[in-house]
C-alpha cells in the first residue's frame, strides 16, 4: 500500500526552508516510500532541494508567497491563511492532495487554521495537542492536551483520553494503554470537579474502550514509565510539559558546570562520555519532536520551531506512522464503541455542552 | 534578641520521632540560639534525646497521646486535633508558647488545623504554601501556591504575590524581588481571566509594593534564575513542583544507568565524582526542605514526609529565618501599603469576594 503524501510547510520554523527541507530529506533517506508536497517559496525550496536529489524526485512543490509569522495572532493568521505556506499545506489535507501536514510555524495559528479548515471529527468537541515524552520504562508516554484548550470540561477530558489511547496503541503497540488523569493526588476526592467527573465516566467505560484506566496520576510520575497516556487540560499540560523540559535543561546545565569545574572533572567527563551521551540522547528534544493535533478530520503535526533537521525528520516519521496506522479512523471507531448509553454523560456533567448546544 | 521557641511535631514524618529529633539536634548544633518545644510521646522523645544532650538542654517536652496519620482526611484531623502532636504544636503558636511550628505530617491536615487554629491574617483571604527551589542563578526561587488552594481567583493571586515577595526579601535579601505569574505564554492575552486580571492589578501596584513585576513567566523558566517569585494557583503550582521534582529524579536515574552501563563509564564516574556530587547536592530535596504556609497569624512550616535529619534541620533553619525576620509583620505592612484605592480590585474582578462578603 502506498503511503499518502505528507504536506510540509517549508516556511515554518525558526530557520525556515533549509531545516525543513533537510529534515524531510533525512526522513526520506530512512523510508523511501515517503512522498512529499513541499509548500512555500518555490525559488527557495528548489535551491534547498539541490543537495537532495532523492527528496526532489519524490516531491512536488506548491508555490505560495505568504508566510504566517511567529507574531501573527490566530485571528490575523485565519484572515491571511489562504495565501500562506501553512494555510495551503493544511488545505492540501482537506482537499485530499496530502494525507497529513507538518509545520514548524506559530502554534496558535496552526491550531486555528487547522480547526477552521479541517473541522473536528464527529463526536469530538475540541481537538487536543499530544506529544510523546521519554520515560524510564520501555515506551514513551503520551501527554495531552498540551495547550490547545486553556479550560476543559469533563467531556473534553474523556475525549482526550480516547484520542490519547488510540495514539498510544499506534505508538507503543500496547492493546490496552494505561490511561490516567493528571491531578494533585491520587485519592478520588482530589482536584477539580471536572477531573472527578471525567474519572467517573472513564472508570465505567474503560473496558469497552480497550484501555486500562485507574484514576489519577501526579506530575512527578509522568516519566516513570508506568503510565502510557497522561490526560489533562491544555493549561496544566502546557505547564507540566514546560516544567519537564525546563528541568531537564536545568539539570543538564548543572552537570555541564560540574564537569567543567576542575581538570579532574573534565577528564572524568571525557572518559564517561558514552554515559553522558546516552543522557543527551534521551533529553534532546529533537528526539521527541512532533506534537500531533488529534481530533481533526486529518492529521496535523507541529514541529518545534527550534528543531534541527533530525528533529524535523522525527516529526515526519511520527506523521507517517499516524497515517499508516489510520489513527483518525481508529479514534472514530473508539468513539462509536463508547456510543449509546455509555457515552451520554451522567446528569450534571453535561452543563457546558448543553448550554453550547 | 532571643529567638522565640520553635514547636516541633515530633510524631510527624514517615520515620517519626527519631528523624525529627535528629533534625532538630542538627539545626541546634548549627545555631545555638535555637530553642524548641518538642510535642509528642514523651517516652519516645526522651529516648531519642539521649544522644543529643545539647538539644535536650534547650528543649521542653509537651506530651500528647494522639497522632494525625497520613490517611486522616482534613475533616477527621480537625475533629481529632486537640489531643495530637500536630494539633498541640500549632496551638502552642496560637497561645504564644512558641513562635512557629514545624511538622512532617499529613499536609492536608496541617493546612486545615493551621487555618482553623491560627486564622488568616487581616487582608488575606487564603493562606498559600510556598517553597524554595534551586536555580541556575544566585538565589533560590520561591513558588506559591503549591497546593493549599485548588482554585484561585485574581485577588488570591495578588495576595500570593505580596506574600511571596515578602518571603523572597527575607530569603534572598533582594529589596525588589522579581515577581511573575505562571502562565502558558508571556503575551498579555494568554491564559485565564484570573491571571490576566491579577497581572493588571500587580502592574499598577508593583512600585508601591517594592517588587519588580513584569507579567507572566512560563514553566520552563522557573529554575533559570531570572525570577525570584513564581505565583500560581495551588493546582498548577502542585503540578509544576512535582513535574520539576519528578524530572530531576528522572534525569538522575538516567545518568545512574549511563554510568553503570560499562566499565569505562564506571571509571569515568569515579573520576568525575566531584561533578556529580555537585549535581546531587543541588537536586537533593533535603537541601530545599521546608515549605511555608504564608498568610496565617503565625508561622507553620511543612517538612517533607520523607525528609532525612538534614532535611528536617533545613526546615528548622527556614523557620528560624522567617521568625527572625518577622515575615508575618512584613506581609501586614505590605498589605497596608497596598491599601486604600490601589487595593480595591477594578470592577468586575471582585466577583467571588463580593458574593462571599
Automatic annotation (TrEMBL), chains A, B:
- Extract one GO cellular component term from the record: cytoplasm
**Group of enzyme by EC:** transferase
Spell out the InterPro entries in the cross-references.
Answer: FA_synthesis, Phospholipid_synth_PlsX-like
Query: Which Gene Ontology molecular-function terms are recorded?
Result: phosphate:acyl-[acyl carrier protein] acyltransferase activity
List, alphabetically, the Gene3D superfamilies matched. Isopropylmalate Dehydrogenase (3.40.718.10)
Q: Where is the signal peptide?
A: none
Catalytic reaction(s) noted: a fatty acyl-[ACP] + phosphate = an acyl phosphate + holo-[ACP]
Give the enzyme's EC designation: 2.3.1.274
Q: Does the keyword Nucleus apply?
A: no
Which of UniProt's keywords are assigned here? Acyltransferase, Cytoplasm, Lipid biosynthesis, Lipid metabolism, Phospholipid biosynthesis, Phospholipid metabolism, Transferase
SUPFAM superfamilies of this UniProt entry?
Isocitrate/Isopropylmalate dehydrogenase-like
Q: In which pathway does it act?
A: Lipid metabolism; phospholipid metabolism
What role is this protein assigned? Catalyzes the reversible formation of acyl-phosphate (acyl-PO(4)) from acyl-[acyl-carrier-protein] (acyl-ACP). This enzyme utilizes acyl-ACP as fatty acyl donor, but not acyl-CoA.
- Similarity comment text for this entry: Belongs to the PlsX family.
* Assembly behavior: Homodimer. Probably interacts with PlsY.
Q: What is this protein called?
A: Phosphate acyltransferase
Q: Which species?
A: Novosphingobium resinovorum
Q: What is the lineage of its organism?
A: Bacteria, Pseudomonadati, Pseudomonadota, Alphaproteobacteria, Sphingomonadales
Q: Gene name on record?
A: plsX
